[in-house]
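Notes to self after the Tuesday call (sharing in case useful).
The group wants a holo model before anyone commits to mutagenesis around the pocket. I volunteered. Ligand is zinc ion. Logging inputs and output together so the record is complete.
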Amino acid sequence: MYTRRALRWALGPLKPVSSCGQKGQVRPFVQTVAQTVAPRASSLWEDPLKTFRKITSGSEVQDPRSVSLPVPFKTNGRDTSPPAFGKLWLRDNCQCSKCIHPDTKQRIVDTFSIPQDIDLLEATAEKDTVVVKWSDGHVSQYPFYFLRQYMRNREPPKKELNSLRIRPFEPYTLGQHEYPTVSYSDVMANDIALYGWLENIYKWGFCFIKDTPVNPEATESLLKRIAFIRTTHYGGFWDFTADLTFKDTAYTNEFLGAHTDNTYFTDPARLQLFHLLSHEHGDGGASLLVDGFQAAKTLIEENASHAKTLRLISQPAHASGNENHCITPSRQFPVFNWHPDMHYIYQIRWNNYDRASKWDWTIDQQYKWYEAARHYDEILRRPNMEIWTQLEPGTALIFDNWRMLHGRSEFTGKRRMCGGYINNDDFLSRYRLLKFGRQHVLGNLGNIKHRETNPFNFV
Ligand SMILES: [Fe+2]
Ligand SMILES: [Zn+2]
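Result:
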């Protein structure tokens, strides 16, 4: 990816180096910064929004609150100036063991005891670390990989209000792919199989787990391989029959249209697992999955303004079926939820059963929303969007509730089903650590770039 880019050393703002020999090679050096390179303005702290870039005889003078460090970086051909770090940020983000606890990885530096006008006295590159001496007497250490992270992320992303991208995903196409499937014993036995399972869930939105022992205990252990089970007003791990213990359509034997769960929560569960333990004296009850992202993509292609409406107009939701509950999210959410850092749609909330009455909209907005929602609903019901399967004892199903809608056909007889929810953050923690390893994940904290190598690109 970087073959045409030059590798450069940042040697400080006033000593740009035009060339450093062959690609991939870096000449060793030690840099000492005696003092701030730009003249100090007396009004330095008066106007924090003022930028200090001045053009003097063709070369740029940096903001005196910033400093360049001796860390090798790759340029993209256009931006060849060494990246500048804010001094206060740099001091606050010291990576030494007095500032970041080596065991807990927590920040232990007393941020607000750092002088606001902290200055850098000396910066030296040693192997793969930059050592910095500060005016408050502290000596800091910054690994190169940590500093490069800042270089990659220093430009805040532009707001893309009209963009309608969706997070990268793979749509399952009927007849073109086998169902994503893993085996219970593999997943329980080793972390590579566990990672394969989580990768399937993230990529396809769902996965079957065959050879699952037909009992609630084994099913619960299977879920706990990912993380602890999320407890809700329905309990933790559920084991239920259609008896309306909870006053919710899910606990009946009626047809259940495609929906996502937990639209009434501020933070809906990310994963949901079902395992049919038995079905006696009847039939029916086929399971339905619909890829909400694929349907959103179709909507964007067919009518972008409908998609925009579902992105911008929020709806209230509630769960009030049982006497002592009235659960609502902390605010209204739209159907298509937009990730403010990653700039794409990352979560679908679609549950007509749990939608509450919306008051805060004009008649114009009402007609606009109903028209857009009707279009999305029509797409969701197209036969090529529906994935119908018949659950069987021994094969559990797990899916991404932030993406896949689920439902089921009506059934007769008595079904016993067990399963549970897992939180988003716990799922992603497990997934990213297995995919990238702990060191790489920790080295990318705060990274919001769209890169396959960035663990936080996976949301
Ligand atoms: Fe549901
Ligand atoms: Zn430190």
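Two things stood out.
The chain has a mean pLDDT of 85.
The first helix runs from residue 87 to 92.
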